[in-house]
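Entry 14. Ran structure prediction on the chain below.
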Amino acid sequence: MLYYLITYLDRLFNIPGAGAFQYISFRAALALIVSLLISMVFGKRIIEFIRRKQIGETIRELGLEGQTKKAGTPTMGGLIIIAAILIPTLLFSKILNVYIILMVISTIWLGGLGFLDDYIKVFKKNKEGLQGKFKIIGQVGIGLIVGCVLYWHPDVVIKERVDSNSTSSWAINNPNQQTDLKIPKYAETPVKTLKTTIPFVKNNELDYAKFISWACDDCMKYGWLIFIPMVIIVVTAVSNGANITDGIDGLAAGTSAIIGVVLGIFAYVSGNMVFADYLNIMYIPYTGELVVFIAAFIGACIGFLWYNSFPAQVFMGDTGSLAIGGIIAVFAIAIRKELLIPILCGVFFVESLSVIMQVYYFKYQKKRKGLEYAQANRLFKMAPLHHHYQKSGFHESKIVMRFLIISIMLAVLTFVTLKLR
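Output, structure tokens:
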């Protein structure tokens, strides 16, 4: 909102320095600072309010060291994260941008779904919270909305690279200008497409529509039958992955902040014609504005760590974990980088995989050798994986730090996929 206000006032009164608001980098920096201030300053007040309302975490007895000390710790701290994301976004971004609207809707939707789960746990005293099927319905619902918007909205387009022997759009618009600079070679007219990025592959673009093109001559136009289910799967998987990872102090928030940095870089280069051309990636108009949103996201996660690092003064609860996982998924899909998620969100992926492996290995052993043997010979001492290491005697702060180091390594690997093909 401030962007539109200051731009309007600048046109009327020619305010010195107001032109800085035209730069995405400047507004992203403001969003990051304000997000940090909201989560760190106002976060304390929110925690005190939650404590007065006796909204404390009910801890299940899992036999983990230091577990009982966490009983009664305020939960629903995800409200801090959501507020620290939405307020700077609404203040400093171009809120009429389709990608910003989509991210705001996804944040509110999944935050609300998580809030409902936390509300049932805390106020209804039901440790199970919202039934799993209703969580899945909610995640599928937002995935369906995201998929439909990204497929049918007229502003969701890309500019395709033209052949090196062709005349670039820059040269067409500037026929009398000579330059030694490399001119970005992109088509003048943007196109609707279902292309996405494949890591480690030269000319690394995959068109979802090709998966259905074999069925008939005109079937490319039905590519949404592949794309939308893919969006739903990604949103559901990453949202649940973040939810599973949120098990020890600072792990989910710290990992998400690292992921957010990489997504921010991707959004910036994808929305800038010169950088997109240099890196030989898709140029996606209007996605540069997402940098403002992700800056607020990074600030919210880092600011939340002020209170969530060991020993935690507040837990984010499902209100925060479902929201941040969904944000990461929708953001990655919007900038056509969803196939990089298994690498970038490797911690989420491994945590989720450990739960799946634990369950299926237990069922297999139970069927093969009986219940008693299966209980005594589990694949992991406890799932998800961070609890396995807790059971192995590692302090949770050491587990978090090592997971964050791994997350940084995965983030660097994800970034270098832009040139490593």
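The first strand starts at residue 195 and ends at 197. Will compare against last week's run tomorrow.
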